[in-house]
Amino acid sequence: MTQTLQAKEITLAQLEEDFGLVQAPTGKLFAEGSLVLPDLSAIDRSILAEVKIEFRHLSTQEVLEPIVKMVVLSPLLRIAGFFLPPFRITAEKKVELVTEDEGLLVRGLIDLLVFEGRIWVVTIEAKRAEYSLKAALPQVLTYMLASPSTQTSVAGLVTNGSEFRFVQLTKGEKPSYLLSDLLAIDRGDDLDRVAQILKYLGQQL
After folding, report:
1. How far is Cα 43 from Cα 197, in angstroms, rounded to an integer?
2. Strand pairing report for 88-98 and 104-116
3. CB contact at 8 A, 67 and 161
4. 108 with 121: CB under 8 angstroms?
5. For residue range 138-156, what is the model confidence (pLDDT) as tens digits?
């Protein structure tokens, strides 16, 4: 009998046991300076500076997930060019991931998915501000594993508005993932770097 789980309930241990997912011990990805990231315009930097001010003000109260998407993610997606062709964005996309022996079925809803045709550009999982990003990692990896089978590498982003972490999944017989350094909205030019990475991912098409 097939066991059904919601993606928000799954753990990294279950992904490793049931789907063979492992964290790569070494390797570099786009967030760690291994590639030249695109420049941001003066207008882009001005928008991001405003995002910092707005989020700082709002974070004196409880910042729920819809606020994170509206105040932080929306400007980042605009700067990355994801609201323009050839990209499409969908929210609450239903996905299912099934083990080879069909013993486990994982269902979930992707918060935000940027895609072009059948290529998933970036899978975004957002949480409310007080949530740790660790809670979002198994969820976003589940969604990335469920991406179109012809896509061997998938990018993901988890955020609670104040912190960001990119994920790179390499699919195959033994799927593995890499994590970026933790980036924070109130630390130096980290938010600019998040925008640059998103812009870079879009340019790879």
Report:
1. 17
2. antiparallel
3. yes
4. no
5. 999 999 999 988 888 899 9
Number of structural domains the chain divides into: 1
Tens-place pLDDT, residues 2-32: 788 898 889 999 999 999 999 987 766 754 5
The identity of residue 79, as a single letter, is I
The answer to whether 151 and 137 are in contact (CB under 8 A) is no
Specify which residues 166 forms β-bridges with: 157
Torsion of CA 137, 139, 141, 144, to 10 degrees: -140
104, amino acid identity: L
Distance of alpha carbon 163 from alpha carbon 20, whole angstroms: 28
pLDDT digit string, tens, across residues 33-77 = 557 889 999 999 999 999 999 999 998 888 888 899 999 999 999
- Does the model's pTM come out above 0.90? yes
Q: What's the CATH number where 138 sits?
A: 3.90.1570.30
Q: Rounded to an integer, what distance in angstroms lies between the CA atom of residue 53 and that of residue 166?
A: 23
Please give the Cα distance from 74 to 71 (Å, whole number).
6
Residue span of the structural domain in which 48 resides: 3-203
